[in-house]
Amino acid sequence: MAQWQLSTWILAARPKTLVASICPVMIATAMAYGSQGHHWPSALAALLGAVLIQIGTNFANDYFDFQKGADTPRRLGPVRVTQAGLISAEEMKRATALVFGLASLIGLYLIWRGGWQVLIVGIASILAGLLYTGGPYPLGYLGLGDFFVFIFFGPVALVGAYYVQALAITTPVVIASLAPGFLITAILVVNNLRDIDEDRQTGKKTLAVRLGRSFTLGEYLFVIGFASLIPVLLYLRSGEHPASLLSVLVIAAAIPAFKTAFTKTDGPSLNRLLAQTGGLLTIYSVLFSLGWLL
Question: How many domains does the chain have?
């Protein structure tokens, strides 16, 4: 029974999505190391805090989507444990509070390290995680999810992780933060593309529901294409870290994903596309980080 319960909580945490919180911290740490500003305890704390905030957000989404009736038996994506009856709504609510509480404890160290600015970032990140699907005006239900995912998984996550290490913010770091923001937004775009029909029926007005499938496909092309240009912009600006240009190869790696996006509409294919897009984020982040250090 205990083993079954643990596997259920792991399912609820959505471990395959956690690359979205890991990659911005990876890039930030590589850039901090390259500027002689790295600080390993802060890097580890930032990583743990980011992962916990994402798990807390995943738990909150599971709970609030269930409460609002957005998850139905017709769902094409992975099982949502509250809707499936594997975990009670009350248990999920307590788990959400616990995980955000753990993230806050780790945040105390980062606040001590970086000051009141880190406190504001931490509070904003937790609130965004709760308000994405919670509250009277949930961001994800109003078509604002793409924007907030870009901001919090891009500039906020990467610049914040760099700042607590180097205790400074530089223009290259801000520019670099745009790429993971766009690539993680691409993951959400695929999720919304897959769920467009169910979301329309349940009143979840994502950007895909509001503007349609053609717009969503165009958005997918745009965010991946623009992300691949960020290393070029950085190199043209400074002429430094030329090996980081290897990360531009993500656009070539994205060709099979583009083909799937434009030719497939069934749930299993779009679930594979979701995994492919997460893979693009990983490929980009590893190549950029290694290239920056060479």
Answer: 1
What is d(CA 79, CA 75) in angstroms, rounded to the nearest whole number? 8
Task: With CA atoms as reference, report the closest residue to 277 among 261, 294, 293.
Answer: 261
In contact, 272 and 260? CB cutoff 8 Å: yes
Instruction: Between 265 and 75, name the one with better pLDDT.
Output: 265
Q: pLDDT tier at 72 (50, 70, 90 boundaries)?
A: low
| Contact call for residues 169 and 160 (beta carbons, < 8 A) | no
pLDDT of residue 51 exceeding 80, the answer is: yes
pLDDT at 135: 87
Q: What is the CATH number of the domain that holds 121?
A: 1.10.600
Q: Which residue has the tokens 């919180």?
A: 21
Burial (CB count <10 Å: 0-12, 13-18, 19+), residue 76: middle
Q: Which helix (H) or strand (E) holds 9?
A: helix 2-13
Q: How many CB atoms lie within 10 A of CB 218?
A: 13
pTM score over 0.85 = yes
List own/partner pairs for 262-265 with CB under 8 A and 24 or more apart. Answer: 262/217
Question: Rounded to whole angstroms, how far apart are CA atoms 221 and 262?
Answer: 10
Q: Which domain holds residue 8?
A: 2-293
Question: Long-range contacts of range 256-261, CB-CB < 8 Å, 24 or more positions apart?
Answer: 257/224, 258/220, 258/221, 258/224, 261/190, 261/193, 261/217, 261/220
User: Per residue in 157-214, pLDDT tens?
Assistant: 999 999 999 999 999 999 999 999 999 999 999 999 999 998 898 888 999 999 999 9
Q: In sequence order, what are the residues at sequence separation of 6 or more whose Cβ sits closer than 8 angstroms to the Cβ of residue 35?
A: 166, 170
Rounded Cα distance, 62 and 232, in Å: 38
User: Distances from the Cα of 37 to the Cαs of 12, 161, 167, in angstroms?
Assistant: 36, 12, 8
C-alpha 134/C-alpha 182 separation (Å) is 24
Mean pLDDT for the chain?
A: 93
Residue type for position 102: L
